[in-house]
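Memo subject: From amino acid sequence to discrete backbone structure tokens
Action wanted: Derive the backbone structure tokens from the amino acid sequence.
How to read it: Take the token row as a discrete description of the fold.
Attached in line: The record itself begins immediately under this heading.
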Amino acid sequence: MDTATTRWTQATVHPDLWVDEGDDPRETGVTGADERSVLADYLRRYRLTLEMKCADLDAEQLARRSVPPSTLSLLGLVRHMADVERSWFRRTLAGQDVAPLYWTDDSRDEDFDGARPDDAVVREAWAAWRTEVAFAEEFLAGSPDLGATAEHHGKPLPYRDVLVHMVEEYARHCGHADLLRECIDGRVGQ
């Protein structure tokens, strides 16, 4: 476990939270001065939030399903977000012809269905997610302004729309992660 993750699990004021207020790694003290920095910072914060919600859990806990018949789990969310990052940044914005990570002709929900309590599955999911996040960050750092467009379903799609959608996607799924984590060990949203 890395130092940041260890710190996330050691709140002293409110033990059911991840960090004490002054130690929150999502808070940089820097205020965005333009659209790009504001959107990029919101996306960074939500990515970190997903990591925090999964911190210090074993494979069984990460793969634990919410309520039957749902296949929703924290591990499934990590896998899902790896595929979402890949789809929007590699396939749509960069125009790469790459296959989805977990969607197949037989299962559009393999990201959740394949989230098994297995250490190798957990390692692979985090590696895929980190690879896709790194690609997205590098792509955006070298991209033109957010008004630039990529083709999506035959129509121009501004880069800014993808960034806003990614913030929305993470926000929704971090809400799911809050509830999943609270069911596992009582840790609550922060």
Q: What stands out?
A: The longest strand covers residues 149-152. The CA atoms of residues 8 and 18 lie 5 Å apart.
